[in-house]
Design goal:
Layout: H1 3-21, H2 25-41, H3 46-70, H4 74-82, E1 86-93, E2 96-101, E3 104-110, E4 121-127, E5 130-135
Parallel strand pairs: 3-5
Antiparallel strand pairs: 1-2, 1-4, 2-3, 4-5
Helix pairs in contact: 1-2, 2-3
Length: 136
C-alpha cells in the first residue's frame, strides 16, 4: 500500500473520531496526517513526511491551546449569575453539605471555617457542581 494512502486513511480516522469528541485536537492531527499524505504523494521520503506531520501537529496544537485560552467561556458568566444567591440548607456537617438551589439539591462547601450554617447562606463561588457558600 502506498504511504500517501496510509496517511489519508489515518487522517480520515482521526477526523471521524474527532466528530465524537468535539475537542478539535484530533482535527488538527487529522489535518497534519492529510498534509503528510500530500507530501508523500508528491514523492517525499518518510523522514520528510514525519517531520511535516509533526511540525503541523505541534504548531496546530499550540495555536489551538492559545485560541482556547483567549476565547470567552460563556459558562463562567452563567456561574457568575449564581454568585450572591441565597440557598436553603438540606443537610450540613463539618463545613460540607447539601443545599437546595434552583429546584435541585447541590453539593456545597463552606468558603471558610467561620461559616455558620444556622444563618442564611449565599453562593460565593461555583467549583464544578459544588457551590462554595458564605454567610450574608
Amino acid at each position: 500500500m502506498q504511504a500517501y494512502i496510509v496517511w489519508w486513511v489515518v487522517s480520515a480516522l482521526l477526523v471521524g473520531v474527532e466528530l465524537t469528541s468535539g475537542t478539535f485536537y484530533l482535527l488538527v492531527y487529522g489535518a497534519a496526517a492529510a498534509v503528510a499524505g500530500v507530501v508523500a504523494w508528491l514523492g517525499a521520503g518518510l523522514v520528510t513526511q514525519l517531520l511535516t506531520a509533526g511540525v503541523i501537529a505541534v504548531l496546530g496544537t499550540l495555536a489551538l491551546r492559545h485560541w482556547k485560552r483567549t476565547t470567552d467561556h460563556p459558562e463562567s458568566t452563567v456561574q457568575d449569575m449564581d454568585i450572591g444567591q441565597n440557598v436553603l440548607v438540606e443537610s450540613w456537617q463539618a463545613g460540607r453539605g447539601h443545599v437546595k438551589y434552583r429546584g435541585a439539591v447541590w453539593d456545597a462547601e463552606a468558603e471558610s471555617v467561620d461559616v455558620d450554617s444556622t444563618r442564611p447562606l449565599v453562593i460565593r463561588a461555583v467549583k464544578g457542581n459544588t457551590l462554595v457558600l458564605g454567610n450574608e
